[in-house]
Amino acid sequence: MSDVLFEIKDLEVSYGSIAAIKGISLEVRKGEIVTILGANGAGKTTTMRTISQLLKAKAGSITFKGTELTKLPAHKIVKLGISHSPEGRRVFGILTVEENLMLGAFSQSKMDREILNWVYQLFPRLKERRKQLAGTLSGGEQQMLAIGRALMSKPELLLLDEPSLGIAPILVKEIFKEIKEISKSGVTVLLVEQNAKAALKLADRGYVLDVGKIALSGTSAELLASEKVQEAYLGKKH
Fold first, then answer.
1. Could you give the count of Cα atoms lying within 13 Å of 218 in the half-sphere of its Cβ?
2. What value does the mean pLDDT take over residues 160-187?
3. In what order do the strands lie in the sheet with 59-64?
4. Helix axis angle, 97-104 to 113-122, nearest 10°
5. Which residues of 66-76 are buried (b: 16+ CB within 10 A; e: fewer)?
6. Per-residue pLDDT band at 175 (split at 50, 70, 90)
7. End-to-end Cα distance, the chain
8. Going edge to edge, which strands form the sheet with 82-85?
9. SS3 72
10. Rounded to an integer, what distance in angstroms lies between the CA atom of residue 95 and that of residue 210?
11. By mean pLDDT, which of 109-118, 165-174, 192-201 is the weakest?
């Protein structure tokens, strides 16, 4: 599994005069689940939004299958095979569950019913509530919908930003189980998560962001065993 699907090199992103990302580099190989950990304000969401070209890089490169992304508009990123489930879910509350999912397929010439059925298989709750307005769903169900909508464009790389945020623990378990299933189906996953323990149990490798820089990186086992990670994110003192 040495084939690099996606790579960030020396990425810098600023909000006006404030540097949010300070020269980070990371890579994701085909078939992996890679997690980016970090406290609030570390730059995790900024990184994801820059990959999707919702934010523009000040310097550095982002490549997907050898294509440079930093000069492309956001809708082209989706067509290349990268899909983003954003922090805060951002579902369209006045549309039904199924209408939200259909919007996720906008980059396809026509909606693939097979993919829709697969999303319903992954998240049976969405099938049960397909005619319901998305705004009436619980937070966990909206998160399932956001992930399902991102899958509708048939991505090769799925960006998941804080899927466990503000969700009941029982639903977090369910969502993480389905992320594993998504990975098994051949979709590569880049996961931003504050729940370090859950993320590292799921991921192959991880990077720890600290104030816009990568402080640590390694396999999930290495990061779980790291005293720094244990103290900062797993609540263990030494």
1. 11
2. 88
3. 18-29, 4-15, 59-64, 67-68
4. 120
5. eeebbeeeeee
6. confident
7. 35
8. 82-85, 157-161, 188-192, 33-37, 205-210, 213-219
9. coil
10. 38
11. 109-118
221: burial class by Cβ within 10 Å (0-12, 13-18, 19+)? exposed
Sign of CA dihedral 178, 184, 189, 192: positive
Q: What is the pTM (predicted TM-score) of this model? A: 0.89
Q: Are the C-beta atoms of 206 and 36 separated by less than 8 Å?
A: yes
Structure tokens at 231: 């103290």
Cβ(11)–Cβ(47) below 8 Å: yes
The amino acid present at 123, given as its one-letter code, is F
pLDDT at 86 over 90: no
Number of residues assigned to the chain: 238
Q: Is 178 left (phi over 0), alpha (psi -120 to 50) or beta?
A: alpha
CA 183 vs CA 98, 152, 165, 178, 203: distances in Å: 23, 15, 20, 9, 10
Taking the C-alpha atoms of residue 68 and residue 236, their distance in angstroms, rounded to an integer, is 41
Structural contact between residues 230 and 222, judged by C-beta atoms closer than 8 angstroms: no
Task: Please report the pLDDT score of residue 186 as a whole number.
Answer: 92
Q: Are 150 and 104 in contact (CB under 8 A)?
A: yes
Geometric angle at alpha carbon 43, from 212 and 103, rounded to 5°: 150
